[in-house]
Amino acid sequence: MGEARRVLRFGAFDLDLEARQLRRSGIPVHLTRQAFSVLGLLVTGAGRVITRGELRRALWADGTHVEFERGINFCINQVRVALRDDARAPRFVETLPRVGYRFVAEVGSLEPPPVSAHKVQPARSRHLALAIALALAAVSGVGSRRSVDAGSPPVGRAALDAYLRGRLLAQRGGAALEEAVDSFEHAVTLAPRHAPAQAALAHALLSLSEAGLRPARQAMPRARGAALAALSEDPALAQAWLSLAAVRLYYEWDWGAQGDIDRALSLQPGAANAHNARAALLSARGQHADAIAEGERAAALDPLCAAVRGDLGWYYYCARRFPEAAEQWRRSVAIVGGDGPRDRVVDALRQLGRTEAAWREARETMLHVGVAAERADALERRGPAAALHGFLAGSVRHGPIRHAPPERLAALTAAVGDSRLALDLLERAASERSPGLVRSLAVDPDFDSLRTEPAYQRLLRQIGLS
Asked: What is the model's pTM?
């Protein structure tokens, strides 16, 4: 037992085998259970070849029916993403083709940190540490000269508590975003001149709208007001400039938003989200090479962000570089441990004409979201092409339940050959000011069949993309 409690160190990483946690410079790095097991085998056997057979036996009991080769590749890919490793020039995991893998970095051993007599639950301690860090940032104005000026307005304890609670809730995403917005609203009611709270409110409102959880016509104007309020107090808040740019571009269809993105980048040249915002704008205009370059830069700055990686897949997809799109989307799925843009991998494969592979991916997607295996089997009996068509049609039917935006439903509808309904859905997206319309209208390959339609051309002119 004493040996298992060791903490192994390699490079900037610590691997705690008992706690089943990987840390980079002290910060936890997410790994799925199986990917962690793979990493543990590699690190404890550093210098030795770990065969694919060993990995298979360690991960799956006898009698388990899965695609072992694909499962091992998936785990190794996730390990590489977590370690920021490159298979072509590995610093940690070397591939021996058709044999297995070898961990090539030097591995040391650390004593585990002492346990206090007053033990704190791990989740609580992480939340407490984050809350303390945020409180220090808010009070001392980290990254913002204005907030430490002598004349800056004080922030009361109640406002600070509401702001910190909002930050914690916003990190959870999903339905917790509504609670986060409520907390930020309370914070700015108590302290209207607290720029970080106003900026966080703008960002949370945008996230709600993009997730389809609040109509753009409700969220976007309020987000604009919060971003402007933040910038009036602290014009050095890059995130506030990005939020303002998002409102201008995706809600107001104002392409002058590029100036706000450039301002954010001048303030934080190393901010992945700022490079990604520029990439999104360039992609929407059809400047694919420049968009991909910016997207790659964003992914290099934040290689473990599934959203950035997924967006990079989109930029490749719009450039009709479908193999690279599929690869980026697979990496996005790997980062978040199974969730992610699985349906987008289906898109890339069907655009490549790989119908059987697209259907296999579609089937996995169905099972992952809880569709009964019997229903997937029934589709499969129709043959790959008919099954894939059924998957796309089913995605359109169930899209509203899963908060799919109208422009996504339009793309799927166009893919199954219903141009009239696709155009109606695009008209609805424009009417609702759906945030994703600008990103997709001129460049989504599924809209190629609509390009000669007068209604489609009218929409392009309406949002400034004729």
From this structure: 0.68
